[in-house]
Structure formats: C-alpha cells, structure tokens
Target: Glycoside hydrolase family 76 protein
Amino acid sequence: MTPWVITEAHAISGSHPLKSSPLQSQCNNASVAGGIFWNISNKTNLTVGSGAEGFYMALSAYLYEIMKNETYQAAASMSHKFTQSQLLSNISTCSGCARDMISLDDCHYPNKLILNCNTGLYIEGLTVLGHTSNDTELLDIADQLSVIAVKSSQWSNPSGFSIGPPSDVRNDGYGTPTFRAMLIRALHEHWSRSQPDSDIARLIGAYLLLQYNSLLEFGQYPGKPWYSPSWTGPPVPHLVLWGQQGAIDLMNSAISLSVDPSISDSPGPTGTGETSMSHRKPLALGPIIGGVTGGVVFLGVIIAVIVVIRLRRRNGTVSRAQILDHSAFTGGRILGESFQPAPPLPSATAPRGRQWLNTQHHIEPFSASPHADPSSSNIGPPPRYKEVVQ
Model:
C-alpha cells in the first residue's frame, strides 16, 4: 500500500509517479499529503477513500506499538492529518464522522456516504496511536468521535439499537452487513484502553451490551446458532455468512465486558438522572458459577449421607426415620436455604492504557435497555437477563 501514499513531495509537485493525471496540492486549505489512492488500477482516478486511510493508519499504529519504529508512527500521523483535514463531515446527523472519499483532481466528494466502518477505523487508529505516542489530543478526538458514533441517528434508531441491513441479506459480496463490525471493534479497542470507571468507558460498554442483548433477543433464530445481519430482527431461518461474521465481533466484545466490574457493579455516569446500563450485570456469570458450586455441594452431601448410612448399618444403629431425616447432615436446615451463589468472576487484570483526562466535552450516559422494542422508544426491562438486573 505504501507506493500509493501521497508524500509531501508529491503534494508539492502536484503529481504522483503511479498516476497520469495531475493532482491538487491542497484541498480545504490543507496539504493532501498522507492521502492513499483508493483505485490502484485506473491511472487517472485520483480518489482517496476513508477505508484505505483507516486501515493504513490503524495498521501503522499497531506496528509502531509493536516495533517502536518511528517510520510507522510517521505514517499513521500523516493518515490522521489527511483524514482530519479532508474527510471529516459537517452534516448534522453525524458531524465529525468520516466521509467515504474525496477526489483530488478538483477536491470534490464523489458521494455522500457516511459509513460507520470508516469512522470506526479512524477511531481505532486514533486510539492506538494516541496511547502508543502518549498523545492526549488524539485520545480526546477518539473520545469525541466515539460519543458521536454511538449517539448518531445516522447509525442508531431512537432506542439506541444499531441500524443494520435487511434481515434477508444473503449474498452481498461487498459485505455491507460487516461494516458495523468495524465500528464495534474500534469502540471495544477504545474501551479496553480507557480508564475503567471513566464516562467514555461506561458509555461504550453500555452501547456494546445493548447491541449484544439485541442480537440475542431479536437477531438469533430460536434454537439455532444463526444470527441475522440485522441485530433488531427478525431472525432468519437459514445460515447467513454476514450475520455470523458480525455476531462474532460483537460477542468477542461482550466477553471482555462480562468480567469488567466497571460495567456490572459500579454506578453509571451522572448528569441526566437516567438509569445507566452499567448498573446491570451483562452476563449471568454469578448464578452460573453458583449453580455449579451448589451442584458440587449437593453431590458431596449425598455422598456423605451414603457413607454415614453405611457406617451406621455396619454398627447396627441406623433406623428408617434416620435415613429419611436428612436434617442430620444439613445442620437442621433444608438443603439449599443457606446456599449463596458464587460471586462474579474478577475483572481482567490486563492494564489499561492511560489515566482518564478531564476533557472539556460532556458525555451523557447511555441508558437504553438492551431488550427494548427496536421499533419503539419505550424501554422495558430485559426478559433474558431479568434475574440479574439490580
């Protein structure tokens, strides 16, 4: 991909060795250096796409994090500057989100697409580069874009459910249903590197859990591990590749969230008086572990009963009443009355990337219930996990 990058020298000269048409040195009063040509087969096509920019920036940031080679840092920084100056939109429904592409022949935008995957890739690149470079400005931008992404009416309905493709999408070779997964992965990356009890971590965690529970409640076909490309349903009665792929990314995020105490036990962010989803335990791990423990305890009691009965029979002192009266082995209490489920699993011990910064922008809590009717703004209690809602 590197040969298709526009360097400062290319921008100044207004030409690129792999393109036959001249390009603008500046667009929007900023250099076009850092752009990456989207169409590599057409020598006259000077389109730069957000997808290529986002992938290149994120990859370069990860390589810099691993290799500590400043060449990768410089590459990621150039992509960031190009995206910031040339590709961010100003539309009311998603101000600051990444546009799909720009053409450098005359600085026009070939389409009006605002895709969640493009903004997701940019958030991911900002997050990794910001933490690796200790650049708080990049992290603040990632915070702001994350808030925009989860609350934008461009990608979510009034209840907070992610707007996806129709449920019957089966053979979309371009993978439209998977675009949303790129945003999910980016938000999870930003969540995992943020201070656990910060507003942005709570907001992202609540949003991801909302989508996860929506997928289980509305997008999963009953009795089958089939998931609809549309997380708000209806479920599809057959296997859909794009639905499975999107579900994997969402479930991977939910696994991490299930063991984080900042999501399940801590109070949510304040400011609106609404109940945050961070008050709920996202996955019922406590009752599961408690049930397993209870089963082991019950099995142990049964074994103890058998052993004691055999010992008493051997001594000739056991009676039928004693055999039926199990209170002798439970301290006079009915088995199970004093049993308490085991506590939830401890939180992951992997270090988080940075201490929370007191940024100027205000983040309101995300409060939608994960089992609301996607077609309605009336939020109701979640039926699937109602036993663990506090």
In short: The CA atoms of residues 156 and 280 lie 22 Å apart. The two ends are 50 Å apart (CA to CA). The longest strand covers residues 47-49.
